[in-house]
């Protein structure tokens, strides 16, 4: 690709005496750089479909393993995570895994998993609601406001979830159907597996991984200054203003 680009660039330079760039015949090269894209009249398309995707691959993967009723999880989500989402979401790929210190047992008689949670069955219910919301609304922009709302509001799990759903444009009827279905049960099981497979194994919640890694030091920094940590980890070319402020 680079060879043909170089050749076509040289060709263009020869023909035009280096003054302008012609659009290459092969559309494979149209988004190679801004000048070529301009010559081909496809700057908007390149920005949207090619360059944005490349920038997307630089995103820092932030994964949060948590359980819905743990006070430290609530605190972390309502402050650090929410702030990071509001200020630097363009460089972060947020993933939420609502399971935490729960345990599961498969019951052959019902063909369902039964979950046992640190803060009781209310927490299992909350975890399942989060699981269904994330699955129904996979875009972070759609599910994180709900997660934030429920984690920062005290009260009965079902009541809070209903209110938060309404506030954050989540269709609670769909969520309820998922929660009551074998699909919801299976989705929760997948989070159990993902949590149990952590390396190193998680020892507490909230438990953070950044680009798949976890260290004690990183965890402490995340809970103290998540924006700073994510900015420091980001290696892409387009740090948001909030990151530059922190440098
Ligand atoms: C974001 O994270 C999810 C789950 O960890 C992964 O499947 C996806 O590829 C990631 N996206 C980017 C742009 O890194
Ligand atoms: C997620 O939602 C936001 C806001 O509605 C939108 O700009 C973005 O393109 C969506 N992302 C994906 C991957 O659909
Ligand atoms: C984020 O995760 C995705 C999918 O797992 C991976 O392709 C990408 O390289 C990761 N990004 C970083 C910066 O590690």
UniProtKB/TrEMBL annotation:
GO molecular function: oxidoreductase activity, acting on a sulfur group of donors, disulfide as acceptor
Domain Saposin A-type, chain residue ranges per copy: 16-56
One Pfam family recorded for the sequence: SapA
Chief place of localization: secreted
PROSITE patterns for this protein: SAP_A (PS51110)
Localisation per UniProt entry: Secreted
Coiled coil: none
SUPFAM superfamilies assigned: Thioredoxin-like (SSF52833)
Keyword tags: Disulfide bond, Glycoprotein, Secreted, Signal
Annotated Gene Ontology cellular component terms: extracellular region
Signal peptide: 1-20
Keyword Secreted: yes
Family label: Belongs to the GILT family.
Name assigned to this protein: Saposin A-type domain-containing protein
Record lineage: Eukaryota, Metazoa, Spiralia, Gnathifera, Rotifera
């Amino acid at each position: 690709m680079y060879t043909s680009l170089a050749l076509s660039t040289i060709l263009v330079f020869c023909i035009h005496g280096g003054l302008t760039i012609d659009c290459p015949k092969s559309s494979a090269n149209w988004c190679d750089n801004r000048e070529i894209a301009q010559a081909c009249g496809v700057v908007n398309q390149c920005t949207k479909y090619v360059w944005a995707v490349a920038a997307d691959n630089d995103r820092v993967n932030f994964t949060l393993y948590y359980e819905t009723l743990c006070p430290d999880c609530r605190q972390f989500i309502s402050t650090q995570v929410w702030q990071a989402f509001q200020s630097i979401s363009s460089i972060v790929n947020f993933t939420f895994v609502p399971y935490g210190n729960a345990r599961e047992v498969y019951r052959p008689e019902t063909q369902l998993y039964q979950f046992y949670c640190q803060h009781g069955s209310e927490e299992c219910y909350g975890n399942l609601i989060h699981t269904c919301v994330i699955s129904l609304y996979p875009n972070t922009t759609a599910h994180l406001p709900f997660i934030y709302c429920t984690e920062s509001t005290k009260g009965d799990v079902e009541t809070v979830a209903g209110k938060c759903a309404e506030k954050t444009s989540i269709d609670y009827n769909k969520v309820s159907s998922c929660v009551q279905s074998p699909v919801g049960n299976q989705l929760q099981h997948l989070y159990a597996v993902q949590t149990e497979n952590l390396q190193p194994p998680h020892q507490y919640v909230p438990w953070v991984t950044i680009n798949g890694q976890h260290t004690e030091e990183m965890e402490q920094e995340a809970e103290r200054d998540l924006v700073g940590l994510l900015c420091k980890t980001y290696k892409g070319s387009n740090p948001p203003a909030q990151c530059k402020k922190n440098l």
